[in-house]
Amino acid sequence: MKKHKLLRKASIMFMLSIQIIFLFSIFRENLQSTGILISIAIISILILVAYTSGKIHHHEHQYEHILVVSWIPIGAVTSFYLNHYLEMGPVISASAVGLVASFIPNFKKLSTYLQQLPSAIYCGAFIGMSSTNVAPNLVFVLTASFFTAVLILVSKSLFSGVGGKLGTLAFAGVVTTSFIYYLISRYA
Questions:
Q1: Are the beta carbons of 8 and 59 closer than 8 angstroms?
Q2: Residue 90 has pLDDT above 70, yes or no
Q3: Who has greater pLDDT, 49 or 70?
Q4: How far is it, in rounded angstroms, from Cα 153 to Cα 11?
Q5: Can you list the positions of beta strands (E) in 4-109?
Q6: C-alpha closest to that of 145 among 171, 164, 173
Q7: Rounded Cα gap, residues 166 and 122, in angstroms
Q8: Does the pLDDT of residue 182 top 80, yes or no?
Q9: Above 60 in pLDDT, residue 61?
Q10: Strand, helix or coil at 158?
Q11: Which three-class secondary structure state does DSSP give residue 85?
Protein backbone atom coordinates (compact mmCIF):
# COMPACT_ATOMS: atom_id res chain seq x y z
CA MET A 1 0.00 0.00 0.00
CA LYS A 2 2.74 2.45 0.95
CA LYS A 3 4.71 1.50 -2.18
CA HIS A 4 1.70 2.36 -4.35
CA LYS A 5 1.30 5.77 -2.72
CA LEU A 6 4.98 6.53 -3.24
CA LEU A 7 4.80 5.48 -6.90
CA ARG A 8 1.64 7.52 -7.37
CA LYS A 9 3.18 10.65 -5.85
CA ALA A 10 6.41 10.15 -7.82
CA SER A 11 4.43 9.87 -11.07
CA ILE A 12 2.48 13.01 -10.28
CA MET A 13 5.64 14.94 -9.37
CA PHE A 14 7.40 13.75 -12.53
CA MET A 15 4.52 14.91 -14.73
CA LEU A 16 4.28 18.21 -12.89
CA SER A 17 8.03 18.73 -13.39
CA ILE A 18 7.76 18.00 -17.12
CA GLN A 19 4.90 20.48 -17.49
CA ILE A 20 6.79 23.14 -15.54
CA ILE A 21 9.87 22.64 -17.73
CA PHE A 22 7.70 22.91 -20.83
CA LEU A 23 6.05 26.12 -19.62
CA PHE A 24 9.41 27.53 -18.58
CA SER A 25 10.86 26.90 -22.04
CA ILE A 26 7.90 28.71 -23.63
CA PHE A 27 8.36 31.51 -21.12
CA ARG A 28 12.08 31.80 -21.92
CA GLU A 29 11.45 31.99 -25.68
CA ASN A 30 8.73 34.65 -25.37
CA LEU A 31 10.08 37.15 -22.86
CA GLN A 32 9.06 40.05 -25.13
CA SER A 33 5.37 39.11 -25.37
CA THR A 34 3.34 40.28 -22.38
CA GLY A 35 0.23 38.39 -23.51
CA ILE A 36 2.06 35.07 -23.64
CA LEU A 37 3.66 35.67 -20.25
CA ILE A 38 0.25 36.40 -18.69
CA SER A 39 -1.20 33.28 -20.37
CA ILE A 40 1.64 31.13 -19.04
CA ALA A 41 1.13 32.51 -15.53
CA ILE A 42 -2.60 31.72 -15.67
CA ILE A 43 -1.95 28.22 -17.07
CA SER A 44 0.63 27.58 -14.34
CA ILE A 45 -1.84 28.55 -11.63
CA LEU A 46 -4.55 26.36 -13.16
CA ILE A 47 -2.17 23.38 -13.41
CA LEU A 48 -1.19 23.83 -9.77
CA VAL A 49 -4.86 23.97 -8.70
CA ALA A 50 -5.64 20.84 -10.76
CA TYR A 51 -2.74 18.91 -9.26
CA THR A 52 -3.55 19.87 -5.69
CA SER A 53 -7.30 19.30 -5.97
CA GLY A 54 -6.78 15.54 -6.23
CA LYS A 55 -9.91 15.09 -8.35
CA ILE A 56 -7.98 13.98 -11.42
CA HIS A 57 -6.51 10.87 -9.78
CA HIS A 58 -8.10 7.67 -8.56
CA HIS A 59 -7.23 6.69 -5.01
CA GLU A 60 -6.45 3.12 -6.03
CA HIS A 61 -3.34 2.80 -8.12
CA GLN A 62 -3.86 0.71 -11.25
CA TYR A 63 -1.33 -0.40 -13.84
CA GLU A 64 -1.79 -0.64 -17.58
CA HIS A 65 -1.11 -4.06 -19.03
CA ILE A 66 2.31 -4.53 -20.64
CA LEU A 67 0.78 -6.05 -23.78
CA VAL A 68 -1.19 -2.83 -24.29
CA VAL A 69 1.75 -0.45 -23.91
CA SER A 70 3.87 -2.63 -26.19
CA TRP A 71 1.91 -1.12 -29.10
CA ILE A 72 3.28 2.38 -28.42
CA PRO A 73 6.45 1.79 -30.49
CA ILE A 74 4.32 0.60 -33.41
CA GLY A 75 2.38 3.85 -33.44
CA ALA A 76 5.56 5.88 -32.98
CA VAL A 77 7.56 4.20 -35.74
CA THR A 78 4.63 4.25 -38.16
CA SER A 79 3.96 7.93 -37.54
CA PHE A 80 7.68 8.76 -37.76
CA TYR A 81 7.94 6.86 -41.06
CA LEU A 82 4.91 8.58 -42.55
CA ASN A 83 6.11 11.95 -41.27
CA HIS A 84 9.74 11.85 -42.37
CA TYR A 85 10.14 9.21 -45.06
CA LEU A 86 6.86 9.69 -46.91
CA GLU A 87 6.86 13.42 -46.00
CA MET A 88 3.20 13.50 -45.02
CA GLY A 89 3.85 15.96 -42.20
CA PRO A 90 3.42 15.45 -38.47
CA VAL A 91 -0.30 16.18 -38.15
CA ILE A 92 -1.45 14.07 -41.11
CA SER A 93 0.88 11.23 -40.07
CA ALA A 94 -0.37 11.10 -36.50
CA SER A 95 -3.97 11.47 -37.67
CA ALA A 96 -3.60 8.61 -40.15
CA VAL A 97 -2.11 6.35 -37.50
CA GLY A 98 -4.87 7.28 -35.04
CA LEU A 99 -7.56 6.73 -37.66
CA VAL A 100 -6.32 3.28 -38.60
CA ALA A 101 -5.88 2.36 -34.92
CA SER A 102 -9.46 3.37 -34.17
CA PHE A 103 -10.73 0.49 -36.33
CA ILE A 104 -8.79 -2.22 -34.45
CA PRO A 105 -11.56 -2.90 -31.87
CA ASN A 106 -13.96 -3.68 -34.73
CA PHE A 107 -12.08 -6.90 -35.47
CA LYS A 108 -13.43 -8.45 -32.27
CA LYS A 109 -15.89 -6.19 -30.50
CA LEU A 110 -16.00 -8.20 -27.27
CA SER A 111 -12.23 -8.17 -26.77
CA THR A 112 -11.24 -5.82 -23.94
CA TYR A 113 -7.63 -6.08 -25.10
CA LEU A 114 -8.41 -4.78 -28.60
CA GLN A 115 -10.52 -1.98 -27.08
CA GLN A 116 -7.40 -0.63 -25.33
CA LEU A 117 -5.03 -0.66 -28.31
CA PRO A 118 -6.11 2.52 -30.15
CA SER A 119 -5.09 4.82 -27.30
CA ALA A 120 -1.67 3.17 -26.96
CA ILE A 121 -1.02 3.34 -30.70
CA TYR A 122 -2.22 6.95 -30.84
CA CYS A 123 0.05 7.84 -27.94
CA GLY A 124 2.95 6.46 -29.95
CA ALA A 125 1.85 8.55 -32.92
CA PHE A 126 2.56 11.68 -30.88
CA ILE A 127 6.16 10.55 -30.50
CA GLY A 128 6.42 10.07 -34.27
CA MET A 129 5.35 13.68 -34.79
CA SER A 130 8.69 14.89 -33.46
CA SER A 131 10.97 16.87 -35.72
CA THR A 132 14.24 15.31 -36.84
CA ASN A 133 15.94 18.07 -34.84
CA VAL A 134 14.49 16.43 -31.74
CA ALA A 135 14.13 12.80 -32.83
CA PRO A 136 16.90 12.25 -35.39
CA ASN A 137 16.39 8.52 -35.98
CA LEU A 138 14.39 5.40 -35.22
CA VAL A 139 16.60 4.49 -32.24
CA PHE A 140 15.55 7.75 -30.57
CA VAL A 141 11.89 7.07 -31.40
CA LEU A 142 12.08 3.55 -29.96
CA THR A 143 13.82 4.82 -26.83
CA ALA A 144 11.19 7.53 -26.36
CA SER A 145 8.53 4.86 -26.91
CA PHE A 146 10.04 2.78 -24.13
CA PHE A 147 9.97 5.66 -21.63
CA THR A 148 6.45 6.62 -22.67
CA ALA A 149 5.32 3.00 -22.25
CA VAL A 150 6.76 2.96 -18.73
CA LEU A 151 4.92 6.19 -17.92
CA ILE A 152 1.62 4.87 -19.24
CA LEU A 153 2.20 1.58 -17.47
CA VAL A 154 2.36 3.27 -14.06
CA SER A 155 -0.07 6.14 -14.64
CA LYS A 156 -3.29 4.37 -15.62
CA SER A 157 -5.17 5.73 -12.61
CA LEU A 158 -3.58 9.19 -12.80
CA PHE A 159 -5.01 12.11 -14.78
CA SER A 160 -8.31 10.31 -15.14
CA GLY A 161 -10.64 12.17 -17.50
CA VAL A 162 -8.05 14.82 -18.30
CA GLY A 163 -7.65 15.69 -21.96
CA GLY A 164 -4.13 15.60 -23.32
CA LYS A 165 -2.86 12.74 -21.18
CA LEU A 166 -1.52 10.73 -24.13
CA GLY A 167 0.25 13.71 -25.67
CA THR A 168 1.66 14.80 -22.33
CA LEU A 169 3.03 11.32 -21.62
CA ALA A 170 4.50 11.09 -25.13
CA PHE A 171 6.09 14.51 -24.60
CA ALA A 172 7.52 13.31 -21.28
CA GLY A 173 9.00 10.25 -23.02
CA VAL A 174 10.61 12.44 -25.69
CA VAL A 175 11.95 14.89 -23.08
CA THR A 176 13.40 12.05 -21.00
CA THR A 177 15.07 10.54 -24.06
CA SER A 178 16.42 13.93 -25.15
CA PHE A 179 17.88 14.46 -21.70
CA ILE A 180 19.55 11.03 -21.72
CA TYR A 181 20.93 11.64 -25.23
CA TYR A 182 22.24 15.01 -24.03
CA LEU A 183 23.97 13.39 -21.06
CA ILE A 184 25.49 10.69 -23.25
CA SER A 185 26.77 13.18 -25.84
CA ARG A 186 28.09 15.52 -23.17
CA TYR A 187 29.87 13.00 -20.96
CA ALA A 188 30.72 10.15 -23.32
A1: no
A2: yes
A3: 70
A4: 11
A5: none
A6: 173
A7: 8
A8: yes
A9: no
A10: coil
A11: helix
